[in-house]
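Journal club prep, notes for RB
We'll compare a predicted complex against what the paper describes. Inputs for the NAP case:
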Amino acid sequence: MRMINDSLSVAILGGSGFVGSELCAQLTAAGYSVRVLTRHPQKCRHLKVLPSLTILPLAKYQAKTIRQHASGCHALINLIGILNEKGNNGKQFHDIHVGITREALNACEQASIPRLLQMSALNADADGPSYYLSSKGKAENYIKTFTDESINYTIFRPSVIFGENDSFLNRFADLLKIVPGFMPLACPNARFAPVFVGDVVKRMVQSIDDKSTFNQAYDLCGPHTYTLKELVQYTANICGYKRVIIGLPDFLSRLQASIFEYIPGKPFSKDNYKSLQIDSVCEQCEPCPTSLQAIAPTYLSRSAGANFSYNPE
Ligand SMILES: NC(=O)c1ccc[n+]([C@@H]2O[C@H](COP(=O)([O-])OP(=O)(O)OC[C@H]3O[C@@H](n4cnc5c(N)ncnc54)[C@H](OP(=O)(O)O)[C@@H]3O)[C@@H](O)[C@H]2O)c1
């Protein structure tokens, strides 16, 4: 396996994160040499055990520094993304999703990197209802209309991604642990098709040299769809927490978002509320195979610690 791709190097923006860590593991296992460009090398300590992986610190994601670090690479992968911004006018979403994509593409052009993989999100659309979805959509449009035709892109548009260290089920597990008896839940009927991080990353790695994926965008969903309330109840059951999940009506969901966006760390925001107005489910694509039930109990049980009493029967 290693010998096939041994001469190929891939540079990753956002390699320090949840998806990035799995991507680094799968790329190095497939024989790629990997360069992780990051503002936070200290967040990458867990990656140091991987063979043929280099961590390259940078202060900012700018074309010049990306080009310097990624020069000679066969592909650049952009995983940079945020779910909430510091302000609430869309500027940081735009700067990070559209701005860094522009820097990445310029770096590809200047360093003659022929391949760009871009992580977007399901429902990303320049006219989408939230700053998150519209800025992701504008970044996609920027790539699709970029004039340098020597750069072949592939765009990935997943629903919510689960796996060890995810920030979705783990966050609900943490919340459920501290709430007393019941949990008020905004947007309980929003629907998701959670997709396993291992499946998402496998599709990315396979696409690098697969010409049929060049200049295409792919929606990625798991095999089953759930409402948000079902997912939170499932998390509580797996962790062994006896909690009643109380779905909030729309006006209280909006009120919760308006209040929670002022809590440090923004556990829920008006922009999140707007993103949840569209179901995050796939209409037509072939689903990724791994189910939530096959994976989530393994890591949620660990985070639940002593409370764990999961019985698959
Ligand atoms: N997780 C999901 O459920 C999900 C679903 C759909 C789409 N996505 C997309 O998938 C990508 C990866 O998601 P993830 O869950 O792995 O995210 P993550 O763990 O938060 O990692 C994202 C990376 O973005 C970089 N980043 C964060 N804030 C930044 C900022 N203010 N300025 C510049 N860079 C910043 C960080 O890189 P450094 O700190 O190393 O510089 C970080 O490693 C994102 O684009 C996300 O929108 C995720």
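Talking point for the session: The chain has a mean pLDDT of 94.
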